[in-house]
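Attaching the record inline, Q. Sequence:
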Amino acid sequence: MQTSPSITFRPGTADDNLACHSVMWQAITHLARQRNLSLEGSADEWWAGNSNAEFTYLSRAAAAWWVAEDSATGQIIGYARSLERGGLFELTEFFVQPDLQAKGVGRELLSRAFPASRGQVRSIIATTDVRALARYYTAGTAARFPMLTLTGTPAEVDAPGALEIIKLDATNADRLSEVTVVERAALGYPRGLAELRWILERREGYLYRRNGQTVGFGFVGKSGAGPIAALDPDELPGELLHVESRAHALGVEELSLQVPGVNAVAARHLLGRGFRIDAWVNLLMSNRPFGQFDRFIPFSPTFL
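Structure, as predicted:
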């Protein structure tokens, strides 16, 4: 299908963030209504909450960012953005204004922001919109497992006494490097120190040690939780108890965690703590299997 001649494509700039956020909000809330799901908050409320900081970071860190613009009105009607960490090439966002979907705009955006020639591993956190899924399969990826959102009211609870908890400091590169070692073991492609420092601007970060050896890490703040990882899945319950307790201490009334469907230890632990699985389910898609997601919980929301 050909796109309208009035639609042009160009690289995104920082000035486009708010307009792109509006497109994202329209697309997500439209899909939610189709699924008879409710999402709270207006576009302005989302932007004033966490989106402003996240979009600002993504605009700086993007490996590729393209927008579709109606040249007659100057309105941005769609965009796609990706990040690259070593050989991991991740499509972080891909949204088109609902009334202009299935008109060729998405195909053109995806070819620019997520080219087939880039990345050893190409990954997407996808919604269950069937048109988008068809596009992702055409782009060479396949669904690997569901991404579940588990939400609950955090409580004050003690982590196992044998677990040593060390608060991270953005200035201590050695300890941040320990985070990258754990994440490399879990995913194969750790985020860099610059991204970890950005997360620490928004969230507390902790190393977890047992018998003097680092076994995992976790991040939590008022803006959300994650990433959280362990070298051994059996360490996750202790880490999650600490994350939950810190969320409670920070005044978080509702804590949501993005849990890979293959992470049975984390899912069972959180369900046992009274968390519930939300109706909204995403899918992790990739061109090939990678990582050990039975011991990993990503950044929430799953842009990162």
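The chain has two domains: 7-140, 150-279+288-297. The first helix runs from residue 17 to 34.

More tomorrow.
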